[in-house]
Design the sequence.
């Protein structure tokens, strides 16, 4: 009989690429991960891993078993959801991942609603960059999380996860008054091609969006500051330190001296959770509370949930 916990480790190795990364994500030691995977090979009766020096890759049999692991783990999530649905009321911890702009605009209101309607539920919020959400969900560190994608930075496929669209917000070019010289030609982002830029830190989706949007407009931005907090970004803009690309949720109450130009660019926010957990009552209640908390001036797309693993859109 194959051990489910070991199957989870194999699935994570297929996604993360190294034993060290699996160990860090799941709070194991690398030696413990290696021992468990060796035990899984003995259970399977054939090699699942190929070791070349310090590098490890999956054999064809290992790759096939990792795909089955996705299906097994999804069915376990479905079973847990059905068991939770038979209990009277919701109780216990509920771990919600979010990013700062969504925390202020939606998550705080959703938390208030959840606590009022389900007093035995214990929502626990963690601010996390969307690039780290997939691993945290699969590891069980989060139950539900808000993620986002941009026009030039689509969300990557993530096996084992499902995402539901929540809202769409426009993007703005933020600049210090009186702003770029209109007589210099160009439009939209092109107004900032000769000015210093304020971007998010490298490795974030916001940083990638600014670089790709500027490149699509025909120039590479000259980055002066790298800041992740939009309030600080706008303060720097007001101080004449550069221009920035900011989504609508990030331009609430801009400081004096900041002008905004709306661009034909967008950021889309989705709610993600583990495949198979769609009918879990706590997940369902959280998504409903988040939808009710979306600001009225943001678009609310009427789209079905979608598998993040590259499969077809599904209604779950």
Sequence:
């Amino acid at each position: 009989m194959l051990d489910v916990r070991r199957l989870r480790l194999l699935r994570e190795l297929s996604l993360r690429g190294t034993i060290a990364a699996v160990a860090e994500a799941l709070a194991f030691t690398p030696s413990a991960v290696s021992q468990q995977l060796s035990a899984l090979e003995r259970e399977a009766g054939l090699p699942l891993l190929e070791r070349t020096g310090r590098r490890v890759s999956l054999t064809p049999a290992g790759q096939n078993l990792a795909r089955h692991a996705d299906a097994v783990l999804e069915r376990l999530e479905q079973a847990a959801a059905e068991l939770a649905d038979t209990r009277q009321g919701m109780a216990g911890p509920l771990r919600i991942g979010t990013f700062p702009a969504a925390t202020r605009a939606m998550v705080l209101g959703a938390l208030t609603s959840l606590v009022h309607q389900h007093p035995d539920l214990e929502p626990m919020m963690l601010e996390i960059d969307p690039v780290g959400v997939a691993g945290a969900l699969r590891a069980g560190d989060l139950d539900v999380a808000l993620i986002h994608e941009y026009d030039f930075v689509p969300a990557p496929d993530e096996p084992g996860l499902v995402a539901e669209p929540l809202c769409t917000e426009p993007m703005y070019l933020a600049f210090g008054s009186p702003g770029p010289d209109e007589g210099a030609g160009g439009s939209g982002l092109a107004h900032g091609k000769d000015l210093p830029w304020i971007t998010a830190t490298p490795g974030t989706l916001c940083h990638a969006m600014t670089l790709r949007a500027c490149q699509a407009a025909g120039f590479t931005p000259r980055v002066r500051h790298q800041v992740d907090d939009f309030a600080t970004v706008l303060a720097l803009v007001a101080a004449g330190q550069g221009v920035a690309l900011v989504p609508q949720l990030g331009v609430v109450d801009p400081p004096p001296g900041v002008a905004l130009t709306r661009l034909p660019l967008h950021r889309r926010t989705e709610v993600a959770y583990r495949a198979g957990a769609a009918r879990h009552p706590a997940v369902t209640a959280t998504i409903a509370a988040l939808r009710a908390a979306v600001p009225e001036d943001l678009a609310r797309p009427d789209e079905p949930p979608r598998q993040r693993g590259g499969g077809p859109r599904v209604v779950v």
Remarks:
- Residues 182-186, 310-316 have pLDDT under 50 and may be disordered.
- The two ends are 29 Å apart (CA to CA).
- Residues 4-83 form a domain with the Arc Repressor Mutant, subunit A fold (CATH 1.10.10.10).
